[in-house]
Known about the structure:
Layout: H1 2-21, E1 25-30, H2 49-60, E2 67-70, H3 81-89, E3 95-98, H4 112-118, E4 126-130, E5 133-137, E6 143-144, H5 151-164, E7 177-178, H6 181-196, E8 200-205, H7 220-227, E9 233-238, E10 245-249, E11 252-256, E12 268-274, E13 278-285, E14 290-293
Parallel strand pairs: 1-2, 2-3, 5-8, 8-9, 9-11
Antiparallel strand pairs: 1-12, 4-5, 6-7, 10-11, 12-13, 13-14
Helix pairs in contact: 2-3
Amino acid sequence: MKKTIFFLITLFSIVSCNKITDNSFKIGVISDCQYCNCDVKWDRYYKKSPTRLKEAINTLNQDSLSYTIHLGDFIDKDFKSLDSILPTWKKLKSETYHVLGNHDFEVEDSLKKEIIKKLDLNKRYYSFVKKDWRFIVLDGNDLSYQGAISKEKKQQTDSIFNLLKDKNLPYLEKWNGALSNKQLNWIKNELEIATEKNQKVGFYCHFPIYPIDQHNIWNREQFLSLIKPYKNVKFFFNGHNHAGAYQFVDNVHYLTFKGMVDTENTSAFANVTFNKDSIIVNGFYREPSRKLAIK
């Protein structure tokens, strides 16, 4: 009897320890669904996006996901486009999050504020925590010619664009944008909180940081200077460059997910598993699978 009780106590202890130390979880990632009732342009098959989104959600729903995130450009233009795809998006069984893309603001000026509400966002940039990770969602349209709504933000957009225009930067294009000083200060505070709580950090944004090309966020150098002291930053996931890209710099994985809307007969999405020492990207269709080691 005593041996049985000892065995059960030992077994309970092992199970309890496993529950505490097992911090693995899985999420879904989709980028650039970019639906509109539009003709094909730049190899983007806009009208096929609802079907592709439905298939992706059916696939993702087969897993037990902590959450699913869309990395921006949920629509291409027209506010009414949301009504065609949001009912499908809401069939996801997991929690859901949105990153704001430049095309999400390609609507009438009077409806730009309504985009936020329609996507069930309380704020344009925000953070959330899962297990021992802090995920920071950036708003790369904070200062931009699409997403700057207030008079103050529009003035700041003009200021940073004019400040950088003589530097011959390949990414100083009006379809990109920048992080405001207010948002950068908020990011620093989030990083401090993560450090205090011994949390790893992952960033989500629509615009990339690396590699350098015509898609980057305007003040990428300012962002990189900000995060450099924080060794708990592990990845930066984004969309915007539909071709996809990857670069590993200073122990940070910079991964651009391919656009769902592109090509006539294929799609792109992924599920991503977070383990203690790695991030496993399981890609579907054009999205490559890869293992990202973390320290």
